[in-house]
Structures are given as C-alpha cells and as structure tokens.
Amino acid sequence: MGSDKALLQWKGKPFVGHTADILSEVCLQVVIIGDKTERFSDLSYSCFEDIIPSAGPLGGIHSALTHSTIDHVLVCACDLPLISAGVLESLVGQRSKDSEITIARYNDVTQPLLGIYERRCLSKLSDFLEKGGRKVREFLKQCRTETVDLQSLIPGLSEDILLNVNTVEDYRRIKAEKANSKRQE
Q: Which of these, 133, 111, 127, lies nearest to 54 by C-alpha position?
C-alpha cells in the first residue's frame, strides 16, 4: 500500500476508527489491537499492543483473546471499510458454539479476519505462533471452523462487502464508487 492502511481516511475517519465505530453498534466493548498503538491515541477506544510482535493478524487475534474477559471475540480487520453493523449482527447470529472459529464468506471469498474466535482456541493459537506459524488459513485448518455464507443470509448484499483494501488501486476504486453514489443521491 505504501502507507499505514489503518490510518487511510474513510467517511471522515481513519479506517480503524470507522471499523471500531461499526463494531461499537454490535459489541459492548471495542478494543483496537496492533503494533504501535500510540498512532490511535486520537480515537476513543482502548488499545492493546500485540503481545507477540511481528506475528501479523494472528498475533492480533492472540492479543484480543488473551485480553478478553468473555469467551469469544468478534474480529474485524480495519481494511474492510464496506462492512456494516447489519453484516456483523448477522454473523454473530450465526455463531456456532460447537466451533472454535466462525468466519464470513461471500460467494467464493472467505474472510478469516471477519469472524468470531472462541477463547478455547487460544492455546492452539499460542502453540501455532510459538512454532512460527503466521498464516491465518493454516491456523483455521487446525480448529473447528464454521463458515457463514453472507450472500444466502442477507439477500441483495453487495459482492464487495468483504473487499480488503490492500492496494492503492483498491482504495481509489472504493473512494470513486462512494463519490459516484453520493452524486446519484
């Protein structure tokens, strides 16, 4: 991307603030997890540093589960700016208590960074990270993972709902689409 994705602007806020605000519509407590959390000091949310530095997204999930006082956490990557509270509520409503992880899917796109991670998978995650594992999809194979098909759950949902903004082109495209939709209103 060439810059800090968490601080890219979307609807007048940095991605991370926008995502936290959406999560706050569904969750009683929202916590931002990451490295160098002082960059989020302008936001009104609690922040925790990664417990295991340089462990990528799984390190963030590990920190969230470690700090959590309840039996599960709803994880949402900050680079999913098109996500909505309705989608989060639908995902939470489909949470499988038999699974260790419940993640979202739309068509053939699964998004492991939009999901519910049960605290009971924390020891597996700790072992995986201690052995050098960093790939989220590899970790999912070690757990009882359920996938929720958002398309069948929410008719008419945009196919871009799980769009990760990973490139400058992705960012420009969603900004252009937002500008076009405002002009049509």
A: 133
